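Consider the following assembly input.
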Amino acid sequence: MTDAIVIENLSKYFGKFLAINNLSLRIAERECVGYLGPNGAGKSTTIKILCGLAFPSSGAAYLDGFDVVNEGGDARSKVGSIVETPEFYPYLTPQEVLSYFGRIRRMNKNELEGRIKEVILQVRLEKWARVKIGKFSRGMKQRLAIAQALLHDPPILILDEPALGLDPRGMAEVREILKQMKGEKTVFYASHILTEVTQICEKVALIDHGRLLVYDTITGLEKKFFAGLKIEVETLKSMTASQIKKIGELKNVIKVEKKDSRIIIDFKGDRAASGDLLDDIRNLGHKILSFQVLGATLEDVYLQLVEEAI
Amino acid sequence: MMELELDRLAIVTRYELLKHFRRKRFYAVFAIVIAIELLILVIPKVLGEGYPDNVMTMAAMLSIGPSFAVIASIFFIGDAIAGEFEGKTGYILFSNPIKRTTVVAGKYLACFAATALILLALYGVTTASLLGIYHQVPLEVWESFAYCLLYVGGVLAMALFFSSILRGSMGAALSTFFLMFMIFPILQGVLMTTGHEPWFILTYAGGIVSGVYRAPAGMGPGQEALMRTEIGQSLVVMVIYLVAFLFLSAVITRRREMI
Protein backbone atom coordinates (compact mmCIF):
# COMPACT_ATOMS: atom_id res chain seq x y z
CA MET A 1 0.00 0.00 0.00
CA THR A 2 1.43 3.39 -0.98
CA ASP A 3 1.17 6.53 1.12
CA ALA A 4 -1.50 9.01 0.07
CA ILE A 5 -0.34 11.76 2.41
CA VAL A 6 3.31 12.23 3.30
CA ILE A 7 4.56 14.97 5.57
CA GLU A 8 8.34 15.17 5.94
CA ASN A 9 10.12 17.26 8.56
CA LEU A 10 7.58 20.02 8.12
CA SER A 11 8.11 23.24 10.05
CA LYS A 12 6.21 26.49 9.91
CA TYR A 13 7.12 29.77 11.54
CA PHE A 14 4.83 32.77 11.89
CA GLY A 15 7.41 35.43 12.60
CA LYS A 16 9.31 33.96 15.53
CA PHE A 17 6.47 31.67 16.59
CA LEU A 18 7.02 28.04 15.66
CA ALA A 19 3.59 26.68 14.74
CA ILE A 20 4.74 23.32 13.38
CA ASN A 21 7.91 21.74 14.63
CA ASN A 22 9.61 19.21 12.36
CA LEU A 23 6.43 17.20 11.80
CA SER A 24 6.59 13.92 9.93
CA LEU A 25 3.58 11.76 9.19
CA ARG A 26 2.64 9.14 6.61
CA ILE A 27 -0.92 8.15 5.87
CA ALA A 28 -1.50 5.12 3.74
CA GLU A 29 -4.05 4.97 0.94
CA ARG A 30 -7.64 4.46 2.16
CA GLU A 31 -6.64 4.96 5.77
CA CYS A 32 -8.72 7.18 8.04
CA VAL A 33 -6.60 9.17 10.46
CA GLY A 34 -7.90 11.49 13.14
CA TYR A 35 -5.76 14.56 13.72
CA LEU A 36 -6.03 15.67 17.32
CA GLY A 37 -4.58 18.38 19.47
CA PRO A 38 -5.62 21.31 21.63
CA ASN A 39 -6.39 24.74 20.19
CA GLY A 40 -3.26 26.28 18.68
CA ALA A 41 -1.50 22.92 18.44
CA GLY A 42 -0.84 23.35 14.72
CA LYS A 43 -3.61 21.18 13.25
CA SER A 44 -5.15 23.85 11.05
CA THR A 45 -1.74 25.10 9.95
CA THR A 46 -0.78 21.58 8.81
CA ILE A 47 -4.04 21.29 6.91
CA LYS A 48 -3.62 24.72 5.34
CA ILE A 49 -0.16 23.74 4.10
CA LEU A 50 -1.54 20.51 2.63
CA CYS A 51 -4.29 22.46 0.86
CA GLY A 52 -1.99 25.16 -0.54
CA LEU A 53 -3.36 27.92 1.68
CA ALA A 54 -0.10 28.39 3.59
CA PHE A 55 3.49 27.55 2.77
CA PRO A 56 6.01 25.61 4.84
CA SER A 57 9.08 27.31 6.28
CA SER A 58 10.98 24.05 5.77
CA GLY A 59 10.27 20.42 5.01
CA ALA A 60 7.85 19.07 2.45
CA ALA A 61 4.44 17.51 2.06
CA TYR A 62 3.04 15.31 -0.68
CA LEU A 63 -0.48 14.36 -1.69
CA ASP A 64 -0.70 11.26 -3.83
CA GLY A 65 2.98 11.78 -4.62
CA PHE A 66 2.65 15.44 -5.66
CA ASP A 67 4.57 18.11 -3.80
CA VAL A 68 2.01 20.52 -2.31
CA VAL A 69 4.23 23.52 -3.03
CA ASN A 70 5.89 22.81 -6.36
CA GLU A 71 3.08 20.70 -7.85
CA GLY A 72 0.25 22.38 -5.96
CA GLY A 73 -2.32 22.12 -8.75
CA ASP A 74 -1.80 18.37 -9.22
CA ALA A 75 -1.74 17.83 -5.46
CA ARG A 76 -4.98 19.75 -4.87
CA SER A 77 -6.73 17.98 -7.74
CA LYS A 78 -6.56 14.79 -5.65
CA VAL A 79 -8.14 16.36 -2.60
CA GLY A 80 -11.50 17.41 -1.30
CA SER A 81 -11.10 19.67 1.69
CA ILE A 82 -12.82 21.69 4.36
CA VAL A 83 -10.56 24.17 6.06
CA GLU A 84 -11.66 26.05 9.18
CA THR A 85 -15.11 27.59 8.73
CA PRO A 86 -15.31 28.29 5.03
CA GLU A 87 -17.66 30.85 3.58
CA PHE A 88 -19.32 30.93 0.19
CA TYR A 89 -20.22 33.72 -2.18
CA PRO A 90 -23.56 34.99 -0.86
CA TYR A 91 -24.82 35.95 -4.31
CA LEU A 92 -24.62 32.36 -5.60
CA THR A 93 -26.83 29.34 -4.93
CA PRO A 94 -25.40 25.95 -3.82
CA GLN A 95 -25.99 24.65 -7.33
CA GLU A 96 -24.03 27.54 -8.84
CA VAL A 97 -21.21 27.24 -6.31
CA LEU A 98 -20.82 23.54 -7.00
CA SER A 99 -20.99 24.14 -10.72
CA TYR A 100 -18.29 26.83 -10.39
CA PHE A 101 -15.89 24.62 -8.46
CA GLY A 102 -16.70 21.54 -10.54
CA ARG A 103 -15.85 23.43 -13.70
CA ILE A 104 -12.65 24.76 -12.16
CA ARG A 105 -11.84 21.09 -11.53
CA ARG A 106 -12.54 20.40 -15.21
CA MET A 107 -15.38 17.98 -14.55
CA ASN A 108 -17.34 17.38 -17.73
CA LYS A 109 -20.77 18.97 -17.96
CA ASN A 110 -22.92 15.83 -17.82
CA GLU A 111 -20.90 14.24 -15.04
CA LEU A 112 -20.98 17.50 -13.11
CA GLU A 113 -24.76 17.91 -13.29
CA GLY A 114 -25.25 14.38 -11.97
CA ARG A 115 -22.70 14.78 -9.19
CA ILE A 116 -24.17 18.10 -8.07
CA LYS A 117 -27.56 16.42 -7.60
CA GLU A 118 -25.96 13.52 -5.73
CA VAL A 119 -23.92 15.57 -3.28
CA ILE A 120 -26.74 18.02 -2.64
CA LEU A 121 -28.94 15.05 -1.72
CA GLN A 122 -26.15 13.55 0.36
CA VAL A 123 -25.88 16.67 2.54
CA ARG A 124 -29.67 17.22 2.49
CA LEU A 125 -29.64 20.63 0.86
CA GLU A 126 -32.07 19.72 -1.92
CA LYS A 127 -34.70 22.23 -0.76
CA TRP A 128 -32.08 24.97 -0.71
CA ALA A 129 -30.25 24.14 -3.92
CA ARG A 130 -31.54 27.22 -5.72
CA VAL A 131 -31.57 29.64 -2.80
CA LYS A 132 -28.84 32.27 -2.49
CA ILE A 133 -26.26 31.33 0.14
CA GLY A 134 -26.51 34.77 1.71
CA LYS A 135 -29.58 33.47 3.54
CA PHE A 136 -27.89 30.34 4.90
CA SER A 137 -27.13 29.49 8.53
CA ARG A 138 -23.67 28.34 9.63
CA GLY A 139 -24.81 24.71 9.63
CA MET A 140 -26.16 24.93 6.08
CA LYS A 141 -22.91 26.45 4.87
CA GLN A 142 -21.04 23.63 6.56
CA ARG A 143 -23.21 21.10 4.71
CA LEU A 144 -22.38 22.87 1.46
CA ALA A 145 -18.69 22.77 2.40
CA ILE A 146 -18.99 19.00 2.74
CA ALA A 147 -20.78 18.81 -0.62
CA GLN A 148 -17.99 20.71 -2.40
CA ALA A 149 -15.36 18.49 -0.78
CA LEU A 150 -17.10 15.37 -2.12
CA LEU A 151 -18.14 16.81 -5.49
CA HIS A 152 -15.25 15.52 -7.62
CA ASP A 153 -15.09 12.20 -5.78
CA PRO A 154 -11.50 12.79 -4.67
CA PRO A 155 -9.30 9.94 -3.43
CA ILE A 156 -8.18 12.06 -0.45
CA LEU A 157 -10.33 14.00 2.00
CA ILE A 158 -8.73 16.56 4.29
CA LEU A 159 -11.24 17.83 6.80
CA ASP A 160 -10.79 20.39 9.51
CA GLU A 161 -13.66 20.14 12.00
CA PRO A 162 -16.27 19.24 9.35
CA ALA A 163 -19.07 18.99 11.91
CA LEU A 164 -18.46 22.47 13.30
CA GLY A 165 -21.68 24.48 13.54
CA LEU A 166 -23.91 21.53 12.76
CA ASP A 167 -26.85 20.48 14.91
CA PRO A 168 -26.80 16.95 16.42
CA ARG A 169 -28.62 15.55 13.42
CA GLY A 170 -26.17 17.21 11.05
CA MET A 171 -23.25 15.84 13.06
CA ALA A 172 -24.67 12.34 12.85
CA GLU A 173 -25.13 12.74 9.10
CA VAL A 174 -21.52 13.87 8.65
CA ARG A 175 -20.43 10.88 10.69
CA GLU A 176 -22.46 8.60 8.43
CA ILE A 177 -21.00 10.16 5.27
CA LEU A 178 -17.48 9.70 6.60
CA LYS A 179 -18.19 6.13 7.65
CA GLN A 180 -19.30 5.44 4.08
CA MET A 181 -15.96 6.81 2.85
CA LYS A 182 -14.05 4.51 5.15
CA GLY A 183 -11.96 2.05 3.21
CA GLU A 184 -12.66 3.89 -0.06
CA LYS A 185 -10.82 7.14 0.51
CA THR A 186 -7.91 8.42 2.50
CA VAL A 187 -9.35 10.62 5.22
CA PHE A 188 -7.30 13.03 7.30
CA TYR A 189 -9.69 14.39 9.84
CA ALA A 190 -8.96 17.09 12.41
CA SER A 191 -11.46 17.30 15.22
CA HIS A 192 -11.95 18.11 18.86
CA ILE A 193 -14.80 15.64 19.17
CA LEU A 194 -12.94 12.57 20.32
CA THR A 195 -15.95 10.24 20.37
CA GLU A 196 -16.50 11.03 16.72
CA VAL A 197 -12.87 10.35 15.86
CA THR A 198 -13.10 7.02 17.70
CA GLN A 199 -16.15 6.05 15.65
CA ILE A 200 -14.73 7.08 12.29
CA CYS A 201 -10.97 6.64 12.34
CA GLU A 202 -8.74 3.66 12.98
CA LYS A 203 -5.64 5.74 13.66
CA VAL A 204 -4.93 9.04 15.34
CA ALA A 205 -2.09 11.51 15.24
CA LEU A 206 -1.88 13.74 18.28
CA ILE A 207 0.05 16.98 18.12
CA ASP A 208 0.71 19.75 20.58
CA HIS A 209 2.86 22.88 20.25
CA GLY A 210 3.44 21.82 16.65
CA ARG A 211 5.11 18.55 17.65
CA LEU A 212 3.77 15.10 16.93
CA LEU A 213 3.24 13.44 20.30
CA VAL A 214 1.96 10.11 19.11
CA TYR A 215 0.73 8.39 15.95
CA ASP A 216 -0.84 4.99 16.32
CA THR A 217 -4.03 2.99 15.99
CA ILE A 218 -6.71 3.86 18.53
CA THR A 219 -6.63 0.36 20.00
CA GLY A 220 -2.85 0.49 20.14
CA LEU A 221 -2.98 3.79 22.02
CA GLU A 222 -5.58 2.52 24.45
CA LYS A 223 -3.44 -0.51 25.21
CA LYS A 224 -0.37 1.62 25.60
CA PHE A 225 -1.82 4.33 27.77
CA PHE A 226 -4.85 3.04 29.60
CA ALA A 227 -5.71 -0.59 30.12
CA GLY A 228 -9.28 -0.04 31.18
CA LEU A 229 -12.84 0.76 30.23
CA LYS A 230 -15.48 3.29 31.13
CA ILE A 231 -18.81 1.65 31.90
CA GLU A 232 -22.12 3.37 32.37
CA VAL A 233 -24.69 1.62 34.53
CA GLU A 234 -28.28 2.68 35.03
CA THR A 235 -30.22 1.11 37.88
CA LEU A 236 -33.90 1.11 38.68
CA LYS A 237 -33.35 2.93 41.96
CA SER A 238 -30.85 5.70 42.38
CA MET A 239 -27.85 4.50 44.39
CA THR A 240 -27.02 5.79 47.84
CA ALA A 241 -23.51 6.88 48.80
CA SER A 242 -22.90 3.63 50.72
CA GLN A 243 -24.06 1.53 47.75
CA ILE A 244 -21.69 3.43 45.47
CA LYS A 245 -18.89 2.88 47.95
CA LYS A 246 -19.57 -0.87 47.85
CA ILE A 247 -19.35 -0.87 44.07
CA GLY A 248 -16.05 0.98 44.34
CA GLU A 249 -14.76 -1.94 46.36
CA LEU A 250 -15.58 -4.50 43.67
CA LYS A 251 -12.79 -6.28 41.82
CA ASN A 252 -10.98 -4.19 39.13
CA VAL A 253 -13.08 -1.09 39.83
CA ILE A 254 -10.85 2.00 39.92
CA LYS A 255 -13.36 4.79 40.39
CA VAL A 256 -17.15 5.28 40.54
CA GLU A 257 -18.85 8.53 39.69
CA LYS A 258 -22.58 9.26 40.10
CA LYS A 259 -24.43 11.05 37.30
CA ASP A 260 -28.17 11.47 37.94
CA SER A 261 -29.67 7.99 38.03
CA ARG A 262 -26.54 6.46 36.48
CA ILE A 263 -23.05 5.66 37.63
CA ILE A 264 -19.86 5.78 35.54
CA ILE A 265 -17.28 3.16 36.48
CA ASP A 266 -13.60 3.28 35.52
CA PHE A 267 -12.87 -0.40 35.13
CA LYS A 268 -9.42 -1.95 34.87
CA GLY A 269 -10.00 -4.84 32.53
CA ASP A 270 -11.19 -5.83 29.08
CA ARG A 271 -14.71 -6.30 27.73
CA ALA A 272 -14.84 -9.96 28.78
CA ALA A 273 -14.06 -9.03 32.36
CA SER A 274 -16.81 -6.40 32.32
CA GLY A 275 -19.33 -9.29 32.31
CA ASP A 276 -18.12 -10.29 35.75
CA LEU A 277 -18.66 -6.73 36.94
CA LEU A 278 -22.27 -6.87 35.73
CA ASP A 279 -22.81 -10.04 37.77
CA ASP A 280 -21.14 -8.48 40.83
CA ILE A 281 -23.44 -5.44 40.72
CA ARG A 282 -26.50 -7.68 40.36
CA ASN A 283 -25.29 -9.72 43.30
CA LEU A 284 -25.33 -6.54 45.39
CA GLY A 285 -29.10 -6.49 44.79
CA HIS A 286 -29.36 -3.76 42.15
CA LYS A 287 -31.87 -4.01 39.29
CA ILE A 288 -29.93 -2.95 36.23
CA LEU A 289 -31.76 -1.08 33.45
CA SER A 290 -28.73 -0.59 31.23
CA PHE A 291 -25.08 -1.56 31.22
CA GLN A 292 -23.00 0.11 28.55
CA VAL A 293 -19.29 -0.14 27.86
CA LEU A 294 -18.30 3.32 26.70
CA GLY A 295 -14.86 2.15 25.67
CA ALA A 296 -11.43 2.76 26.95
CA THR A 297 -11.41 6.41 26.18
CA LEU A 298 -9.26 8.11 23.69
CA GLU A 299 -10.00 11.14 25.82
CA ASP A 300 -7.91 9.68 28.63
CA VAL A 301 -5.00 9.10 26.27
CA TYR A 302 -5.44 12.59 24.87
CA LEU A 303 -5.54 14.27 28.26
CA GLN A 304 -2.60 12.29 29.52
CA LEU A 305 -0.41 13.06 26.51
CA VAL A 306 -1.37 16.71 26.19
CA GLU A 307 -0.80 17.21 29.90
CA GLU A 308 2.64 15.57 29.63
CA ALA A 309 3.51 17.86 26.72
CA ILE A 310 2.71 20.97 28.82
CA MET B 1 6.25 24.08 -18.07
CA MET B 2 3.66 26.83 -17.70
CA GLU B 3 0.26 25.25 -18.12
CA LEU B 4 -2.29 27.46 -19.86
CA GLU B 5 -5.45 27.82 -17.88
CA LEU B 6 -7.60 29.68 -20.38
CA ASP B 7 -10.65 27.51 -19.65
CA ARG B 8 -10.35 28.26 -15.93
CA LEU B 9 -9.73 31.93 -16.65
CA ALA B 10 -13.00 32.02 -18.60
CA ILE B 11 -14.86 30.30 -15.72
CA VAL B 12 -13.51 32.67 -13.06
CA THR B 13 -14.26 35.68 -15.25
CA ARG B 14 -17.81 34.46 -15.88
CA TYR B 15 -18.63 33.86 -12.23
CA GLU B 16 -17.01 37.15 -11.19
CA LEU B 17 -19.10 38.96 -13.79
CA LEU B 18 -22.14 37.25 -12.32
CA LYS B 19 -21.09 38.70 -8.96
CA HIS B 20 -21.05 42.23 -10.38
CA PHE B 21 -24.39 41.76 -12.11
CA ARG B 22 -26.00 40.48 -8.91
CA ARG B 23 -24.74 43.28 -6.72
CA LYS B 24 -26.60 46.50 -6.09
CA ARG B 25 -23.46 48.60 -6.41
CA PHE B 26 -23.21 47.85 -10.14
CA TYR B 27 -26.72 49.14 -10.77
CA ALA B 28 -26.24 52.05 -8.36
CA VAL B 29 -23.15 53.20 -10.26
CA PHE B 30 -24.92 52.68 -13.56
CA ALA B 31 -27.88 54.78 -12.42
CA ILE B 32 -25.67 57.55 -10.98
CA VAL B 33 -23.49 57.96 -14.07
CA ILE B 34 -26.47 57.94 -16.41
CA ALA B 35 -28.10 60.54 -14.13
CA ILE B 36 -24.95 62.69 -14.35
CA GLU B 37 -25.04 62.56 -18.15
CA LEU B 38 -28.73 63.42 -18.18
CA LEU B 39 -28.14 66.37 -15.83
CA ILE B 40 -25.43 67.67 -18.17
CA LEU B 41 -27.95 67.49 -20.98
CA VAL B 42 -30.89 68.90 -19.04
CA ILE B 43 -29.32 71.73 -16.97
CA PRO B 44 -28.38 74.02 -19.92
CA LYS B 45 -31.94 73.68 -21.21
CA VAL B 46 -33.48 74.39 -17.80
CA LEU B 47 -31.24 77.42 -17.32
CA GLY B 48 -32.21 78.56 -20.81
CA GLU B 49 -28.58 78.94 -21.86
CA GLY B 50 -28.59 76.33 -24.61
CA TYR B 51 -25.78 74.02 -25.57
CA PRO B 52 -22.24 75.12 -26.47
CA ASP B 53 -21.69 75.98 -30.14
CA ASN B 54 -18.76 73.66 -30.45
CA VAL B 55 -19.57 69.94 -30.53
CA MET B 56 -16.16 69.21 -28.97
CA THR B 57 -16.97 71.32 -25.91
CA MET B 58 -20.20 69.44 -25.42
CA ALA B 59 -18.41 66.10 -25.86
CA ALA B 60 -15.85 67.17 -23.26
CA MET B 61 -18.68 68.12 -20.86
CA LEU B 62 -20.24 64.68 -21.35
CA SER B 63 -16.96 63.00 -20.38
CA ILE B 64 -17.75 63.76 -16.69
CA GLY B 65 -19.94 60.62 -16.53
CA PRO B 66 -17.17 58.29 -17.73
CA SER B 67 -14.73 59.92 -15.26
CA PHE B 68 -17.16 59.17 -12.46
CA ALA B 69 -17.52 55.58 -13.71
CA VAL B 70 -13.74 55.18 -13.50
CA ILE B 71 -13.81 56.33 -9.85
CA ALA B 72 -16.70 53.98 -9.06
CA SER B 73 -14.93 51.01 -10.63
CA ILE B 74 -12.47 51.15 -7.72
CA PHE B 75 -15.32 49.96 -5.51
CA PHE B 76 -16.02 47.08 -7.89
CA ILE B 77 -12.53 45.67 -7.60
CA GLY B 78 -11.67 46.63 -4.00
CA ASP B 79 -12.86 43.29 -2.63
CA ALA B 80 -11.56 41.14 -5.50
CA ILE B 81 -8.61 39.65 -3.59
CA ALA B 82 -8.95 41.18 -0.11
CA GLY B 83 -12.53 39.87 0.03
CA GLU B 84 -11.38 36.26 -0.43
CA PHE B 85 -9.23 36.60 2.69
CA GLU B 86 -11.52 38.84 4.69
CA GLY B 87 -14.68 36.85 3.92
CA LYS B 88 -12.94 33.44 4.14
CA THR B 89 -14.23 32.43 0.71
CA GLY B 90 -10.60 31.86 -0.24
CA TYR B 91 -10.52 28.74 1.93
CA ILE B 92 -12.60 27.06 -0.73
CA LEU B 93 -11.45 28.88 -3.87
CA PHE B 94 -7.70 28.62 -3.30
CA SER B 95 -7.82 24.97 -2.26
CA ASN B 96 -9.03 24.17 -5.76
CA PRO B 97 -6.45 23.18 -8.40
CA ILE B 98 -6.34 26.60 -10.00
CA LYS B 99 -3.40 28.95 -10.19
CA ARG B 100 -3.86 32.08 -8.15
CA THR B 101 -2.55 34.04 -11.14
CA THR B 102 -5.57 32.77 -13.07
CA VAL B 103 -7.89 33.88 -10.25
CA VAL B 104 -6.32 37.35 -10.22
CA ALA B 105 -6.57 37.67 -14.00
CA GLY B 106 -10.18 36.44 -14.04
CA LYS B 107 -11.25 38.86 -11.34
CA TYR B 108 -9.51 41.71 -13.10
CA LEU B 109 -11.09 40.89 -16.46
CA ALA B 110 -14.57 40.61 -14.95
CA CYS B 111 -14.25 43.95 -13.24
CA PHE B 112 -12.88 45.50 -16.39
CA ALA B 113 -15.75 44.06 -18.43
CA ALA B 114 -18.37 45.32 -15.96
CA THR B 115 -16.89 48.83 -16.02
CA ALA B 116 -16.47 48.71 -19.80
CA LEU B 117 -20.17 47.92 -20.11
CA ILE B 118 -21.06 51.02 -18.12
CA LEU B 119 -18.63 53.10 -20.17
CA LEU B 120 -20.09 51.73 -23.38
CA ALA B 121 -23.54 52.82 -22.26
CA LEU B 122 -22.23 56.27 -21.34
CA TYR B 123 -20.47 56.77 -24.65
CA GLY B 124 -23.66 55.54 -26.26
CA VAL B 125 -25.52 58.34 -24.48
CA THR B 126 -22.82 60.81 -25.59
CA THR B 127 -23.08 59.64 -29.20
CA ALA B 128 -26.88 59.80 -29.24
CA SER B 129 -26.88 63.23 -27.58
CA LEU B 130 -24.33 64.71 -29.98
CA LEU B 131 -26.22 63.26 -32.93
CA GLY B 132 -29.46 64.70 -31.61
CA ILE B 133 -28.07 68.15 -30.85
CA TYR B 134 -25.34 68.68 -33.45
CA HIS B 135 -26.23 66.03 -36.06
CA GLN B 136 -22.62 64.86 -35.96
CA VAL B 137 -20.37 62.67 -33.85
CA PRO B 138 -16.68 63.53 -33.93
CA LEU B 139 -14.29 60.60 -34.19
CA GLU B 140 -12.67 61.86 -30.99
CA VAL B 141 -15.65 60.50 -29.01
CA TRP B 142 -14.61 56.94 -29.78
CA GLU B 143 -10.96 57.87 -29.40
CA SER B 144 -11.86 59.12 -25.91
CA PHE B 145 -13.72 55.83 -25.25
CA ALA B 146 -10.62 53.83 -26.15
CA TYR B 147 -8.44 56.00 -23.88
CA CYS B 148 -11.00 55.73 -21.12
CA LEU B 149 -10.86 51.92 -21.34
CA LEU B 150 -7.10 52.00 -21.03
CA TYR B 151 -7.32 54.48 -18.16
CA VAL B 152 -9.81 52.32 -16.29
CA GLY B 153 -7.48 49.37 -16.96
CA GLY B 154 -4.67 51.18 -15.14
CA VAL B 155 -6.89 52.34 -12.29
CA LEU B 156 -8.32 48.84 -11.78
CA ALA B 157 -4.84 47.30 -11.80
CA MET B 158 -3.77 49.74 -9.11
CA ALA B 159 -6.87 49.02 -7.01
CA LEU B 160 -6.27 45.29 -7.46
CA PHE B 161 -2.76 45.77 -6.15
CA PHE B 162 -4.15 47.34 -2.96
CA SER B 163 -6.69 44.55 -2.75
CA SER B 164 -3.89 42.00 -2.88
CA ILE B 165 -1.81 43.60 -0.14
CA LEU B 166 -4.48 44.78 2.30
CA ARG B 167 -6.69 42.74 4.61
CA GLY B 168 -9.93 44.64 4.11
CA SER B 169 -11.90 45.29 0.94
CA MET B 170 -12.96 48.77 2.01
CA GLY B 171 -9.37 49.63 2.95
CA ALA B 172 -8.22 48.58 -0.51
CA ALA B 173 -10.87 50.70 -2.24
CA LEU B 174 -10.27 53.72 -0.02
CA SER B 175 -6.48 53.51 -0.40
CA THR B 176 -6.82 53.62 -4.18
CA PHE B 177 -9.37 56.39 -3.88
CA PHE B 178 -7.10 58.56 -1.71
CA LEU B 179 -4.11 57.87 -3.91
CA MET B 180 -6.04 58.84 -7.03
CA PHE B 181 -7.86 61.86 -5.67
CA MET B 182 -5.62 63.24 -2.94
CA ILE B 183 -2.03 62.11 -3.26
CA PHE B 184 -1.75 62.13 -7.05
CA PRO B 185 -3.40 65.57 -7.45
CA ILE B 186 -1.22 67.06 -4.68
CA LEU B 187 1.91 65.61 -6.28
CA GLN B 188 0.71 66.77 -9.67
CA GLY B 189 0.11 70.30 -8.35
CA VAL B 190 3.51 70.51 -6.68
CA LEU B 191 5.32 69.26 -9.77
CA MET B 192 3.49 71.66 -12.07
CA THR B 193 4.14 74.58 -9.74
CA THR B 194 7.84 73.78 -9.83
CA GLY B 195 7.78 73.63 -13.61
CA HIS B 196 7.90 69.84 -14.02
CA GLU B 197 5.39 68.02 -16.12
CA PRO B 198 3.89 65.15 -14.05
CA TRP B 199 3.54 62.94 -17.13
CA PHE B 200 4.20 59.77 -15.15
CA ILE B 201 1.22 60.21 -12.82
CA LEU B 202 -1.77 58.08 -13.82
CA THR B 203 -4.39 60.77 -13.20
CA TYR B 204 -2.41 63.22 -15.32
CA ALA B 205 -2.10 60.64 -18.10
CA GLY B 206 -5.85 60.00 -17.76
CA GLY B 207 -6.42 63.63 -18.70
CA ILE B 208 -6.37 62.56 -22.35
CA VAL B 209 -9.86 61.07 -21.93
CA SER B 210 -11.30 64.58 -22.10
CA GLY B 211 -8.10 66.22 -23.41
CA VAL B 212 -8.63 64.57 -26.78
CA TYR B 213 -11.50 67.00 -27.36
CA ARG B 214 -9.18 70.01 -27.38
CA ALA B 215 -10.24 71.18 -30.84
CA PRO B 216 -7.48 70.31 -33.28
CA ALA B 217 -9.19 72.65 -35.75
CA GLY B 218 -7.75 75.66 -33.96
CA MET B 219 -4.30 74.17 -33.72
CA GLY B 220 -1.39 74.56 -36.03
CA PRO B 221 0.30 71.40 -37.38
CA GLY B 222 3.05 71.72 -34.76
CA GLN B 223 0.59 71.99 -31.90
CA GLU B 224 -1.41 69.01 -33.13
CA ALA B 225 1.75 66.90 -33.41
CA LEU B 226 2.67 67.93 -29.87
CA MET B 227 -0.79 66.93 -28.65
CA ARG B 228 -0.47 63.54 -30.36
CA THR B 229 2.94 63.04 -28.73
CA GLU B 230 1.41 63.84 -25.33
CA ILE B 231 -1.37 61.36 -26.00
CA GLY B 232 1.18 58.70 -27.02
CA GLN B 233 3.15 59.33 -23.84
CA SER B 234 0.01 59.10 -21.69
CA LEU B 235 -0.98 55.84 -23.35
CA VAL B 236 2.42 54.36 -22.55
CA VAL B 237 2.11 55.54 -18.92
CA MET B 238 -1.33 53.93 -18.61
CA VAL B 239 -0.10 50.65 -20.12
CA ILE B 240 2.83 50.63 -17.69
CA TYR B 241 0.51 51.15 -14.70
CA LEU B 242 -1.78 48.40 -15.97
CA VAL B 243 0.96 45.83 -16.58
CA ALA B 244 3.10 46.66 -13.54
CA PHE B 245 0.26 46.65 -10.99
CA LEU B 246 -1.38 43.60 -12.50
CA PHE B 247 1.93 41.75 -12.34
CA LEU B 248 2.53 42.85 -8.74
CA SER B 249 -1.00 41.82 -7.75
CA ALA B 250 -0.48 38.35 -9.22
CA VAL B 251 2.91 37.89 -7.53
CA ILE B 252 1.64 39.07 -4.12
CA THR B 253 -1.55 37.00 -4.29
CA ARG B 254 0.46 33.89 -5.17
CA ARG B 255 2.55 34.32 -2.05
CA ARG B 256 -0.21 35.39 0.27
CA GLU B 257 -1.20 32.92 2.96
CA MET B 258 -4.68 32.32 4.35
CA ILE B 259 -3.86 32.55 8.03
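The two ends of chain B are 29 Å apart (CA to CA). Ask yourself how this observation constrains the way the partners meet.
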